[in-house]
Amino acid sequence: MDDALRVIDQRRFVRYDVNWVGQAVFPTGTTTIRVLDLSLGGARIALPLPFASYQAEIRQLRLPDIALLACSRRWSTDRLVGVQFDQPEQAYASLRTIIAQLEDRVRSSAG
């Protein structure tokens, strides 16, 4: 199975490993990040610097060519941050097609 599409755990929403470039939007500016996993409920991202160095909370996650989603930090350790999407309906509308494609790839690689 392709590691980039492996289902990594069971939560309220299934999370999928991805390796995408995105942007974290802070009140003070925007920084380029790496999206490590994604679900309909949130994402795990890697920042270029430790989270504490930004001295602000992440307000939005920009997934180029996909969506700009309002989010809140749920946890952080050094450069890794877990975010939860604040507007589940918007996240579902924006992500349902890409999540369906990830699900199809996981199914086809498993069979």
Automatic annotation (TrEMBL):
Which molecular-function annotation in GO is an example for this chain? cyclic-di-GMP binding
Q: Record's InterPro entries?
A: PilZ_domain
Q: Tell me the Pfam families matching this sequence.
A: PilZ
| PilZ domain sequence ranges | 9-99
Which residue windows are coiled coil?
none
SUPFAM superfamilies associated with the record: PilZ domain-like (SSF141371)
* Protein name, entry field: PilZ domain-containing protein
